[in-house]
Amino acid sequence: MTPAPVKDWAIRHFGTDDKLVLELGILAVLGLLALALGVAAVRFRRTGAAGVLLFGAVGATAALGRPDSAGPADALPSLVGAAAGALLLYVLTGRLTAVRRPEAAGLPRRAGKTPASGEPAPEVGEPAPASGEPAPEAGELAPEAGEPAPGAAREADRVSGVGGSAGSVDGDASIETPGWDRRGFVIAAASAAAASAAVGAVGRSLNGSRGRNAVASRERVVLPRPGSPARRPPRGAGLRVAGVSPFVTPNTDFYRVDTALVVPEVDATDWRLRVHGKGVRRPVTYSFDDLLRRELVERDITLTCVSNEVGGPYVGNARWTGVRLADLLAECGVKPPSRGGPADQLVSRSVDGMTIGTPVEDVMDGRDALLALGMNGEPLPFAHGFPVRMVVPGLYGYVSACKWIQELELTTFDAYDPYWVRRGWARTAPVKTQSRIDTPKPFARPRAGTVMVAGVAWAQHRGIDRVEIRVDDGPWQEARLAPEDTRDTWRQWSFPWQAAPGTHTLTVRATDREGRVQTDERTRTAPDGASGRHSVVVTVE
Q: Which residues of 128-193 form beta strands (DSSP E)?
């Protein structure tokens, strides 16, 4: 339910740490709510407990409303947790009520009835009783000199355990004073902490066993040699310029933008992919081994996130191994709209409920659209979609790159709006022609002389034809392009700049193979990707 502008703002300011910021925010809100309920419960025990139950009901409603909800059972953790929390809060606040304490010796009683015995208090002007003893009745002789006062004798009896119950004065002379049952509170709280820790350990153990099975299934995967291997990148495709992004992005450095707070760990042994919908002769289900037995293809493809600002980091190039998505769909009877197929949208669903809509025409137009099983020579990392994900060159990830995929449905754009489309993003989103200056960095202070300006440019499925650099308001000067691997990968470029002392602005623009020049009109990422030209300011010394 997060508004798209809020998510866009979070990614822009926090990058891939947006989930950490969200989790810290959740904990902060929970802490404030817990404080509020605790304060209320001290005065109104039932109100505090009811607040916890209400909070649990909100959680249960949220769980049932998730796209991956499996039914009413998903509400149980929130409801059971809320019931346990409400009961615990009610019990603990019961330990914070007033307790009965022995009356302090020599403390004068208030007029009226005493709380302990109900005896009348001394009249005004009447001598106060000694040591908490009642005053002598009329005609009763005061104690002789040397004789212990009745209060002293009573006190001695109290200390020695004689003359009434131990710890009391006159057997029951105690009063109710504000305080709390420390011992009872500590015992109840410690017991609750121990019980919740034990239950939590059991839950983590159960979840951990599932995670261990998933990890073991990935470790057992041996990717067969691809029947159609990727060609070796041409010599010089990766420039040897300090500060430039490597031509192939390592798995650990590859950007990750998704909505999963916890990365799904899927056991490849149990994984299944269901294909169904308009134009499918009959629903088909594939296992992971079914895909491994098919001919595998290997391709270098650059992916870009639609949340990438001009000059941003959410673009990366990897070598993907998988099966041709078009071939698999064709075997199921699917035809693109240009050949009379009834479906124009391919909706992919992940195990966590994410839905992504891809044009069927783009998937089946001959480009290397893949159901990827491998990344840079190894099985997909969990963070990047193990066991299977989609990769479609030329499209932003939010309309093509479904991770942890488990379902493919053929439908139409008129019939169904996927996750991001319902939040105001465009239905179709080809990658825009973009370029980036990797070096020098913004506000760098290079020395006068030859300064190597370098970076990357991309226009997947069209290819980069030219990159140009402008210094301040001067003319555009053509940069040197590294050899192209394929039109689906980015290209590195460099420009030897003869830098003069002073502050300068460096700007880059690219032109793709279709003649489209990177526009200077700045737009934000929504609804179909950012546009504009990247520039950096440096001071030459």
A: 174-177
Cα separation, 78 vs 73, whole angstroms:
10
pLDDT tens digits, one per residue of 370-384: 999 999 999 999 999
Name the β-bridge partners of 494: 454, 480
SS3 254: coil
Question: pLDDT digit string (tens) for 274-316?
Answer: 999 999 999 999 999 999 999 999 999 999 999 999 999 999 9
What is the C-alpha separation between 213 and 34, in angstroms, rounded? 36
pTM, entire model: 0.78
What contacts 213, CB < 8 A, 6 or more positions away?
A: 267, 269
Torsion 225-227-230-231 (CA) sign: positive
Torsion angle (degrees, nearest 10) of CA 86, 88, 90, 93:
-130
Q: Closest Cα partner for 540 from 498, 486, 485, 503?
A: 503
Q: Look at the alpha carbons of 247, 249, 253, 256 in this order and tell me if their dihedral is positive or negative.
A: positive
Q: What is the Cα–Cα distance from 36 to 49, expressed in whole angstroms? A: 12
Given a contact cutoff of 8 angstroms between Cβ atoms, the answer to whether 237 and 492 are in contact is yes
The two most distant CA atoms of the chain are separated, in Å, by 123
* Residue 284: C-alpha distances to residues 277, 281, 290, 333 (Å): 10, 9, 12, 11
pLDDT of 104 > 70? The answer is no
**Structure confidence by residue, pLDDT tens digits, 324-333:** 999 999 999 9
Contact 84, 91 (CB under 8 A): no
What is the residue whose two structure tokens read 């020098």? 440
